[in-house]
Amino acid sequence: MLAYPLIIGGANILLIIALNKYLLKGKIIDFNRGKGKWYWDILLGLILDGIYFLLMYAEQATIARILLQGGPASQEVINLMIGPANNPILLSIWLGHVVWIGVALFEESGRVLFLNCL
Length: 118
Description:
The protein has helices at residues 3-23, 38-61, 63-67, 75-86, 88-117. By secondary structure, the chain is mainly alpha-helical.
């Protein structure tokens, strides 16, 4: 649970940075490459939201039925969530490394790549 987001997220962050640098010829610090129009940004955001919700409903209709059997969570999963909540060291590792680096940095670097592609 601690290593998987760091390994996969870290590899994806490096991949996104490489795509941004070599495919789009952008700089790592290149967050806003041009002047945009606010109405165009809102329109593209609404289109991307629509695509996201369509994919979410398709996922719920297909994969979620296979993965979620409708039963309660197993005791192992509950213990996995309670463990870091009761241990400050595990909680700091989870919040520090996994959430801030593995999730936040991955999300922001992915957003930069996709907005530069648009």
